[in-house]
Amino acid sequence: MWLRKGPDASLRLGVVTSRKVGKAVVRTRARRLLREAFRLNRSRFTGDCDVILSARDKIAGAVLKQVETELLTLARRAGIYGKPG
Hints:
Helix content: 25-40%
Structural class: alpha+beta
CATH topology: Ribosomal Protein S5, domain 2
CATH class: Alpha Beta
Strand order of the largest sheet: 1-3-2
Shape: globular
Number of helices: 2
Strand content: 15-25%
Mean pLDDT: 92
Order of helices and strands: EEHEH
Low-confidence stretches: none
Radius of gyration: 13 Å
């Protein structure tokens, strides 16, 4: 997870998947999982920054709940996780 701060930042999401993650089907599924985990928890995030998520190869066998847990852990570490709004 990377954060991009700037005057035009507004908790937008960017997702990156490289070919190391797997073939096209696997990369697309990884992007969908990351987007869905972000969408379900977006109301809990705070701050004026854009979020960039990079999929790793372990996401290939993951389910949504695992991805969501990891996303929230990273968000807490980054200081952008707050109470539900």
